[in-house]
């Protein structure tokens, strides 16, 4: 469009950790092209879980990954490792190699974790049915929870990340009472072999109201 290149960025998660919603990548690409921004996509939760191949948000929307300037993410989730990854154009990755050796070589990933992440990627390639199985399991769980009396499930239908929230049937006079109720759910789930985590906030430091 002839616009001057700017140093402005759109930074988004593929799957939002605090809601389980999936980012609208096609609309973000429209904004990127219209205003000539750079797009940075965090695939920490979507890599290995979304798309036919488990390749993340671009695979889910059938979009060329080259349309995204930088794809980054943690390897601590579906890849069962540690550290992170960053992919992009040659100019971007080469700049990182030149500018970051002092940090990279002082905090390099142990070989066993590098091998673990590599094997996870290979496992996805060898078992293309795994992303569909994750989606099926998530759909089954959401369906079974649809008639729960005291909680609702938040998140997109295709998202493997979802939040269990208290609904209007819960009679509580304070946030503390609601948190106690949520902790009872977590404890009961743990007693039945299901691991849940409860969101915790420092309410005195929050700038807006948080729904437990």
Give the beta-strand count.
6
Taking all residues together, what is the mean pLDDT? Answer: 87
Query: What is the rounded Rg?
Result: 20 Å
Helix content: 25-40%
Number of separate helices: 7
Low-confidence runs: none
How much of the sequence lies in strands comes to 5-15%
How do the helices and strands line up, and which of them pair or pack?
Elements: E1 9-13, H1 25-35, E2 38-42, H2 57-61, E3 70-74, E4 84-88, H3 90-99, H4 101-106, H5 111-126, H6 130-144, E5 151-154, E6 163-166, H7 175-191
Parallel strand pairs: 1-2, 2-3
Antiparallel strand pairs: 3-4, 5-6
Structure summarized in a few sentences:
The chain has 212 residues and is an alpha/beta fold. The protein is built from seven helices and six strands; from the N terminus they run βαβαββααααββα. It has a four-stranded mixed beta sheet. The chain has a two-stranded antiparallel sheet with strand order 5-6.
Structure description:
There is one protein chain. With 212 residues, the protein is α/β, with parallel strands linked by helices. Helix content is 38%, strand content 13%. The protein has 7 helices and 6 strands. It has helices spanning 25-35, 57-61, 90-99, 101-106, 111-126, 130-144, 175-191; strands at 9-13, 38-42, 70-74, 84-88, 151-154, 163-166. The strands form 2 sheets. It has a 4-stranded mixed sheet with strand order 1-2-3-4. It is globular and about 55 Å long. The model has no long low-confidence stretch (mean pLDDT 87).
């Amino acid at each position: 469009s002839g616009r001057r290149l700017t140093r402005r960025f759109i930074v988004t998660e593929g799957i939002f950790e605090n809601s389980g919603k999936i980012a609208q990548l096609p609309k973000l690409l429209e904004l990127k092209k219209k205003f000539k921004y750079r797009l940075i996509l965090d695939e920490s939760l979507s890599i290995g879980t979304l798309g036919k191949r488990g390749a993340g948000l671009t695979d889910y929307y059938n979009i060329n990954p080259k349309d995204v300037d930088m794809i980054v993410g943690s390897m601590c989730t579906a890849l069962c490792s540690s550290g992170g990854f960053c992919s992009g154009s040659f100019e971007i990755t080469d700049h990182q190699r030149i500018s970051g050796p002092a940090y990279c070589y002082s905090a390099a990933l142990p070989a066993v974790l590098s091998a673990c992440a590599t094997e996870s990627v290979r496992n996805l390639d060898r078992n293309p049915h795994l992303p569909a199985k994750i989606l099926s399991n998530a759909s089954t769980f959401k369906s079974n929870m649809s008639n729960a009396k005291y909680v609702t499930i938040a998140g997109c239908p295709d998202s493997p990340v979802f939040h269990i929230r208290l609904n209007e049937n819960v009679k509580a006079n304070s946030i503390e009472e609601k948190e106690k109720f949520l902790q009872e759910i977590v404890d009961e789930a743990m007693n039945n072999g299901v691991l849940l985590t409860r969101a915790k906030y420092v309410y005195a430091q929050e700038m807006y109201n948080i729904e437990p």
